[in-house]
């Protein structure tokens, strides 16, 4: 589980630096690790467990009975994005970047859900690993860069999911 949290921190820090956040700002955030740890725990307990029970604990398995994983991830991502209506009302550009990131995360989390056989605990940690580092940023530009990164990573995951769906089944062995 620490690997998931570290991945969220690394993605957030990398995207923030690429967006022009000064390294000193990230250093100040790193010195506030008790605040970060408390925030991560709260994100896990409320956003992680609460949302993931709904998105990947209940909704995703039901959608997967009718659709391939890539389509299911797209549907869950669209609904998940709409769940965050206040962000969608913040203007066209921030809303579109946020939705791109959420759709990307939906593909990443669906792939993770498949890998861990639907273990919601792991997904809750993954969700917290995204949310907690974002709270340490005070720049909208940096947050947009993080969501763009998650959107791009999710696009790669979606392509992998598509290739997996199209891969021929192995021939039976006798």
Describe the structure in brief.
With 174 residues, the chain is mainly alpha-helical.
Supply database-style keywords.
174 residues, mainly alpha, globular, 8 helices, single chain
Describe the structure.
There is one protein chain. With 174 residues, this protein is an all-alpha fold. The protein has one domain. The chain has 8 helices and no strands. The chain has helices at 2-18, 23-31, 33-64, 69-83, 85-88, 92-115, 120-134, 140-166. α1 runs parallel beside α7 (120-134), α1 (2-18) packs across α8 and α3 (33-64) packs across α7 (120-134). The protein is globular, with a radius of gyration of 17 Å.
Please write out the topology:
Elements: H1 2-18, H2 23-31, H3 33-64, H4 69-83, H5 85-88, H6 92-115, H7 120-134, H8 140-166
Helix pairs in contact: 1-7, 1-8, 3-4, 3-7, 4-6, 6-8
Largest sheet: none
- What is the helix tally? 8
Integer-rounded radius of gyration = 17 Å
Oligomeric state of this protein? single chain
Question: SSE order, as H and E?
Answer: HHHHHHHH
The count of strands amounts to: 0
Span of the ends, CA to CA: 41 Å
Number of domains: 1
Mean pLDDT: 92
Helix content: over 70%
Query: What is the overall shape?
Result: globular
Regions with little confidence, pLDDT below 50 for 5+ residues? none
Q: What fraction strand? A: under 5%
Task: Please identify the structural class as seen in this structure.
Answer: mainly alpha
